[in-house]
Amino acid sequence: MEYVIIGFLWLSILLYLVLGGADFGAGIIELFTSKAHRYRTRKTAYEAIGPIWEANHMWLIIAVVILFVGFPVIYSTMSIYLHIPLVAMLLGITARGTAFVFRNYDAVIDNMQRVYNRIFLLSSFITPLFLGMIAGSVISGRIDPSETDFTSAYIWPWLNWFSLTIGLFTVGLCGFLASVYLIGEAKPGDDRNSFIRKAKQWNVVAVVCGALVFIASLTENIPLMSWVFGNPFGATAVIAASFSLVVLWILVKRGKTVVPRVLAGFQASMILLAVSYVHFPNFVILKNGEHLSLFEHQAPEATMTALAWALIIGSLFILPSLFYLYYSFQKDRHEGSFVEH
């Protein structure tokens, strides 16, 4: 049953990165769009994510519940030593969701719409930034349970160049995912060409930020290069992601929109696989050389069995409904209330 739970955990993290990341990316690309073109970008993104934006957070909730119930030691360690970026990320999610609702559905149209819009855009950037920094902290080996100094225990594990570059890479990846997904949502012509240009730009941003991650790992003595390229699986994943990127742009040039979305998600999954494979079953790397393992630091067997069955049975009810939700709104997406500000 432990493999079932680990599978659900990894899948929920991947889906939150791919679907939730594209959700955040919609706000990110709007943030960096000129005012002259921001309205069209916002309108296209709103029509695409409006009906299902909140459903994407279900994957994060599932991951948190799995860690809390199935791996309490890992959950408590992350909650204690990474509580600052975790709170920042959760505040970003809350602020973004609130601002999204009020900027589009507020009954009173006034100057507060600009405030809501600014909160939405900034939180769309900040949330994946801290999400990536948390991921960097988990694998960088900077968490030290023996530390008694506040800054050493609760600040430096996540506030460092390596974690920051992973945060920026996460932002770039979200912008790229959203741009590729929105190519198919935009109307043929200038709007679609605009999102193709955005996808190319964010592709460059993601590649540059990815290079910065490797540079930061070298300066901070983190063996990221050997983690990714030091085993056949990681090297194959990187090659597959690179090859799929070439195919993606060939298909976009030919006017295809569906398969490029799949390939963009595939690239994200390969990146996650390349990094996570070398550490499995370890989930958190500690500064003292120890690890928090998904096998060694799990809940009692009875709890794991109950959790596994709950995930299996729950998925049979929830997943079909969720997929139908995506399908129904993609099939017949109606024009919602939208006001230019």
TrEMBL record:
<feature type="transmembrane region" description="Helical">
    <location>
        <begin position="53"/>
        <end position="74"/>
    </location>
</feature>
<feature type="transmembrane region" description="Helical">
    <location>
        <begin position="6"/>
        <end position="32"/>
    </location>
</feature>
<protein>
    <submittedName>
        <fullName>Cytochrome d ubiquinol oxidase subunit II</fullName>
    </submittedName>
</protein>
<feature type="transmembrane region" description="Helical">
    <location>
        <begin position="264"/>
        <end position="286"/>
    </location>
</feature>
<feature type="transmembrane region" description="Helical">
    <location>
        <begin position="80"/>
        <end position="103"/>
    </location>
</feature>
<feature type="transmembrane region" description="Helical">
    <location>
        <begin position="159"/>
        <end position="183"/>
    </location>
</feature>
<keyword id="KW-0812">Transmembrane</keyword>
<keyword id="KW-1133">Transmembrane helix</keyword>
<keyword id="KW-0472">Membrane</keyword>
<dbReference type="InterPro" id="IPR003317">
    <property type="entry name" value="Cyt-d_oxidase_su2"/>
</dbReference>
<keyword id="KW-1003">Cell membrane</keyword>
<dbReference type="Pfam" id="PF02322">
    <property type="entry name" value="Cyt_bd_oxida_II"/>
</dbReference>
<feature type="transmembrane region" description="Helical">
    <location>
        <begin position="115"/>
        <end position="139"/>
    </location>
</feature>
<feature type="transmembrane region" description="Helical">
    <location>
        <begin position="306"/>
        <end position="327"/>
    </location>
</feature>
<feature type="transmembrane region" description="Helical">
    <location>
        <begin position="204"/>
        <end position="227"/>
    </location>
</feature>
<comment type="similarity">
    <text>Belongs to the cytochrome ubiquinol oxidase subunit 2 family.</text>
</comment>
<feature type="transmembrane region" description="Helical">
    <location>
        <begin position="233"/>
        <end position="252"/>
    </location>
</feature>
